Task: inverse folding
């Protein structure tokens, strides 16, 4: 079946979607990619995979004392995607990287310069041929500043906490207690501070990026807005 892009013959662009945690990036990016017949690349999953590797190889604590050791850990690391699945050194880690421990440690691992350099190189290779939607924190500013379409999604911290809560509720077995909304909001704000204040590739909006506040938008509407922008640009 022909994708919509093939039917109307538009060029293969790079779409960079950045923004804070739970602003709707991954759902929007995945659905826009699907509609355009593009590849979706979740760079957060790549930072989570590097964090899992640090945990698996037992070097995480050592890295806190001697961050320069990270280069050894990165030697030969491979991360690849197959549909919605993420593979670290050939093993499917799609579920493991969503673990709470990974969520707590990923800010530290993603603040290390050799990690950012290595993953940036991998991301540039993955997006080289275009026809990709890549989401993260520094895609429009650092990884693909030349991306034809740059989007910066934002939303109220409370609204983002509610989304996280709904996500946890949907994934819970019912036996484990869920964190309350205030705590989730505090965690989200802390993660915003960590991402915005780090030295390398902090979360910030590229001056050319289009900012979309998703606080009061449905997912369908978000997707529609980004999809229409992509069509406009790729026809220019
Ligand atoms: O989107 P996420 O929650 O899965 O991302 C996990 C962490 O990875 C997030 O706290 C910040 C980091 N990250 C980053 O530093 N740069 C990116 N391009 C993507 C994610």
Result:
């Amino acid at each position: 079946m022909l994708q919509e892009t093939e039917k109307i013959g538009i060029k293969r662009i790079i779409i960079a979607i950045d923004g804070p945690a739970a602003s709707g990036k991954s759902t929007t990016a995945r659905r826009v990619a699907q509609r355009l017949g593009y590849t979706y690349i979740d760079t957060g999953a790549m930072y989570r995979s590097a964090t899992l590797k640090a945990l698996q190889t037992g070097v995480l604590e050592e890295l806190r004392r001697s961050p320069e050791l990270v280069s050894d850990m990165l030697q030969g690391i491979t991360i690849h995607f197959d549909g919605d699945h993420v593979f670290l050194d050939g093993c499917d880690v799609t579920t493991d990287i969503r673990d709470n421990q990974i969520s707590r440690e990923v800010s530290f691992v993603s603040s290390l310069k050799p990690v950012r350099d290595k993953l940036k190189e991998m991301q540039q290779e993955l997006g080289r041929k275009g026809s990709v939607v890549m989401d993260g924190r520094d895609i429009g500013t650092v990884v693909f500043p030349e991306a034809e379409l740059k989007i910066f999604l934002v939303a109220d911290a409370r609204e983002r906490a509610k989304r996280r809560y709904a996500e946890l509720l949907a994934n819970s077995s019912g036996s484990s207690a869920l964190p309350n909304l205030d705590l989730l909001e505090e965690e989200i704000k802390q993660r915003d501070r960590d991402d915005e204040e780090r030295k390398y590739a902090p979360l910030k909006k590229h001056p050319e990026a289009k900012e979309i506040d998703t606080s009061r938008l449905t997912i369908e509407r978000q997707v529609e807005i980004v999809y229409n922008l992509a069509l406009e640009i790729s026809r220019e």
About this structure: The chain has a mean pLDDT of 91. The chain has one domain: 11-215.
